[in-house]
Amino acid sequence: MTDPMTDPAAGPDPEAIAADYARLVFPQFDERVALALGQDLVSRGLAAGLPIVVDIRTSDRVLFHAALPGAAPLNDRWVARKSATALLFQLPSLLVGLRNREKAETLARHGLSSETHADNGGAVPIQVDGTGVVACVTVSGLPQVEDHRLAVAGIKAVLATL
User: Helix crossing, 73-89 with 93-102: angle to 10°?
Assistant: First the structure.
């Protein structure tokens, strides 16, 4: 499968990102799967020396959270804002942002404050077959497209083990 963001000159392709996301469906998702996903992302981050925060949460509970060396406290705020957007729209935050920019809109159009929501990439909702969105995995600390790519890579790796 090709990366939906392979043409750096053209930028990320919203339709390809949406199609890729539609395939990221878990048969089930619980604390054990959240831990496996979080550990996969932490391992990737440590191996590459990435200054990231990894977070997995539901709408009312944090299931996994880790800050790697070099990550800043500000990354925790980005995680909360990007996660809130992905959970509300039930779409990757990168996709929400790309679609907003295509329409020359902002989150404010939806009555959302930049203090609580962000449509920058890095938050990807966790979908469960037959249930819908149950949680969100978020990476913060890299450029937004790289945050998104890393989150998706972790999801794909864990899905391959289920």
Answer: 70
The first and second tokens of residue 11, run together, are 């930028």
pLDDT, one tens digit per residue, over 18-35 is: 999 999 999 999 999 999
The enclosing H or E element of 140 equals strand 132-140
Beta-carbon count within 10 A of 138 CB: 32
Q: Which long-range contacts (CB under 8 A, 24 or more apart) does 57-65 make?
A: 57/83, 57/87, 57/135, 57/136, 57/138, 58/134, 58/135, 58/136, 59/87, 63/31, 63/34, 63/35, 63/38, 63/135, 64/34, 64/35, 64/37, 64/38, 65/38
What pTM was estimated for this model as a whole? 0.93
CATH class for domain 14-159? Answer: alpha beta
Give domain limits for the chain: 14-159
Alpha helices of the chain — where are they, by DSSP H? 14-22, 31-48, 73-89, 93-102, 144-159
